[in-house]
Amino acid sequence: MDLSLFDSRIFGLYSSNSQRVRRLSERWFGEEMFCPACNSDELDSFKPNHPVADFYCPGCGEEYQLKSQKTGFGRRILDGAYSTMINAIHNETQPNFFLLQYDPLQWTVSNLLIIPKFFFTESVIEQRKPLSGKARRAGWVGCNILLSEIPLDGRIPVVKDFHIQDNEKVRSYWKRVSFLSEKKSTERSWIVDIMHCIEELNKESFTLDEIYTFEEYLSKHHPNNRNIKPKIRQQLQYLRDKKYLRFQGKGRYQLKK
Ligand SMILES: [Zn+2]
Are 63 and 55 in contact (CB under 8 A)? Predict the structure, then answer.
């Protein structure tokens, strides 16, 4: 993988920097990126202005959306219309998401991470305030993707601080969590939230009681559910069945790496 984004031909075609960034990052992505979900070493681009997704894999058909920015990935990522995102989550049409950070002085990729589509749930989408009366699109409601609510397992690094991760390692990270794709978004939302809570504990081995301490947090995300504890146990059992966790007996669990 070559991290250089610069292409003098494309650069010269545009005077607007945002268009340059878009075209340069798309060209780079199309040439350098492989499919994390299968063994395909290439991704193809959709025709310009294709709704939502930018690329697809000719091998497995997975779709990818690319978003580039020069600033680091903070707690939240600004995204498009809130209703479009929520509908895509409900209809299971949300593509996988690639987040690219570039260095604007050297025109190189500094960070690239993948958020697999099955980590998109309502819990990680924040509704923004409607645009004010004076704005051109007054009343329009956008959304933020709350990166901080997505477990680390759902933020797979391909490039980290200019360091390129091995392709097979990226694919193995994907594979480890791809069991989530078998669940509908409403059920997935519970599992992803529990994965997030486990991560917050920051322990390889933890107890059921420790996860119960997140009861209040979970009831905020799932206000219609009155049986938080049984729901927690159900998710832990599922994660154990999927070999994400190991049950050690006496209410103790261990993360499998
Ligand atoms: Zn593929």
Answer: yes
Q: Indicate the pTM of the whole model.
A: 0.90
- What does the alpha-carbon distance between residue 88 and residue 122 come to, in Å, rounded to a whole number? 10
Could you give the residue range(s) of every CATH 3.40.210.30 domain in the chain?
1-174
Task: Kindly give, in sequence order, each residue whose CB lies less than 8 Å from that of residue 255, ignoring residues fewer than 6 positions away.
Answer: 198, 204, 205, 244, 245, 246
- One-letter amino acid at 177 equals V
Ligand 1 centroid–CA 37 distance in Å is: 5
d(CA 245, CA 207): 12
CATH 1.10.10.10 positions along the chain are: 183-257
Q: What pLDDT, on a 0 to 100 scale, did the predictor assign at position 257?
A: 75
The CA 174 to ligand 1 mean position distance, Å, reads 11
pLDDT digits (tens, 9 = 90+) for 61-117: 999 999 999 999 899 999 999 999 999 999 999 999 999 999 999 999 999 999 999
Q: If you measure from the C-alpha of residue 94 to the centroid of ligand 1, how many angstroms do you get, rounded to a whole number?
A: 16
When computed from its CA atoms, the radius of gyration of the chain, rounded to whole angstroms, is 20
Domain 1-174 is in which class?
alpha beta
Query: How would you classify the pairing of strands 55-56 and 245-249?
Result: unpaired
Q: Are 138 and 131 in contact (CB under 8 A)?
A: yes
CATH architecture of the domain covering 183-257 = Orthogonal Bundle (1.10)
Q: Tell me how far CA of residue 171 lies from CA of 1, 9, 38, 152, 254, in angstroms.
A: 15, 33, 7, 15, 23
Give the Å distance between the CA of 133 and the centre of ligand 1.
44
